[in-house]
Design brief:
The structure holds two protein chains of two kinds. Chain A is mainly alpha-helical. Chain A contains three helices and three strands; from the N terminus they run ααβββα. Helix content of chain A is 64%, strand content 7%. The longest helix of chain A is centred in the middle third of the chain and has 25 residues, at 31-55. The termini of chain A are far apart. Chain B has a two-stranded antiparallel sheet with strand order 2-3. By secondary structure, chain B is mostly helical. Chain B is elongated, with a radius of gyration of 18 Å. Chain B is 67% helix and 6% strand. In chain B, strand 2 (66-67) and strand 3 (70-71) form a beta hairpin. The chains are: A mainly alpha, B mainly alpha. Chain A binds chain B through residues 4-5, 8, 12, 26, 30, 33-34, 36-37, 40-41, 45, 48, 52, 55-61, 64-65, 81, 84-85, 87-89, 91-92, 95-96, 99, and chain B through 2-3, 6, 10, 30, 33-34, 37-38, 41, 45, 48-49, 52-58, 61-62, 78, 81-82, 84-86, 88-89, 92-93.
Chain lengths: 102, 110
């Protein structure tokens, strides 16, 4: 199914997006820092992905992507990095909350 | 083994950044607990992506060693990406950021 890769990304980010506004997590108060983190971390990985894909390090099964490409990369691949960064920060902040001293 | 090399280099960069930015994330025990959790998620999600397969790997660019369907390089790569995310986030919002803002904020007598 062409939507499959997108669906995997959506499912991965679902819970973090739904819980992002939880007042126990600092995320809602730190939107600018979150954006800045994306701007710093994501572009180098986009670049790496572009070069790796061009050189053949990896490729994408046409059955599972919607078929729109930008600079040779499936759009899903561009979405992959913001998703991972967001999930990582969400899990990190959640963990810090659970481990906090009471 | 270009992918292998690139992945290892990315981790070296991230380790270097941890020292440079003085975030010292890699020294925290809770970071390694966090990474274990993320690796578990990665195994599920990336396991699915590589099993379908939604993503395929070019021969000669990776070692060929896989955990189930996942190339080991993906774990190295993932470690780099996830560490970088948390590191930059902490650099912007964490203790080191608070220390920096205290150091540059004028005192009460100013």
């Amino acid at each position: 199914m062409a939507l499959e890769y997108l669906l995997v990304l959506a499912l991965t980010v679902l819970v973090p997006v739904l819980r992002a506004r939880d007042p126990n997590l600092s995320l809602s108060r730190r939107r600018r820092d979150l954006l800045l983190t994306f701007l710093i971390v994501v572009p180098p990985y986009w670049l790496w992905d572009y070069v790796a894909t061009a050189r053949g390090h990896w490729s994408f099964n046409p059955h599972f992507i919607i078929g729109i490409r930008v600079f040779g990369l499936p759009v899903e691949e561009f979405l992959f990095f913001p998703v991972v960064v967001f999930v990582a920060i969400f899990v990190w902040e959640s963990m810090k909350f659970f481990l906090r001293e009471r | 083994m270009e992918y292998t090399l690139a992945a290892v280099v990315s981790v070296a960069v991230v380790v270097g950044l941890d020292v440079l930015l003085q975030t010292r994330i890699l020294r925290q025990r809770r970071f390694w607990l966090f990474m274990a959790i993320m690796f578990a998620f990665m195994t599920i999600v990336n396991g699915y992506l590589t099993w379908r397969p939604i993503v395929l790997y070019g021969d000669g660019f990776y070692l060929g060693v896989r955990l189930i369907t996942i190339p080991v390089e993906d774990y190295i790569y993932g470690f780099g990406l996830i560490s970088a995310s948390v590191m930059v986030w902490e650099w912007l919002t964490g203790d080191s950021a608070r220390r920096r803002s205290r150091a540059t904020t004028p005192g009460p007598s100013a």
